[in-house]
Amino acid sequence: MTDLPTLIGTLGVGLLLVAFFLNLFQRTTPESLWYVSMNLVGAGLSCYASWLIGFVPFVVLEGTWAVVAGVALVRLLRKRGAAEG
């Protein structure tokens, strides 16, 4: 049976790769809510999995990725809110 950190990390990395490939093949854009959300959730899960196994370099990498994606999501939502209001 697969351990929990491996399962969480696989899901996180899977989301990051799906977002990457969708963007690469022009099925989404970096300004898409789906793209930014997949990056945020994928990086967050990957960061948590890295924390669980105690691998600090990837905690830093994925944590930074999640924070940047979170900032991008807030900006995107503010921009959409301003356009609607």
Describe the structure.
- The protein has 85 residues and is mostly helical.
- The chain is built from 3 helices and no strands.
- The protein has helices at residues 4-24, 33-53, 56-84.
- It is globular, with a radius of gyration of 14 Å.
- The mean pLDDT is 96.
Keywords:
mainly alpha; globular; 0% strand
One letter per element, helices H and strands E, the order comes to HHH
Mean pLDDT, as a whole number?
A: 96
- Percent helix, as a range, is over 70%
Structural class category: mainly alpha
- Main beta-sheet annotation: none
Rough outline: globular
N-to-C CA distance: 51 Å
How many H/I helical runs? 3
Low-confidence stretches are: none
As a whole number of angstroms, the C-alpha radius of gyration is 14 Å
Q: What is the total tally of β strands?
A: 0
Please report which band the strand proportion falls in: under 5%, 5-15%, 15-25%, 25-35%, 35-45% or over 45%: under 5%
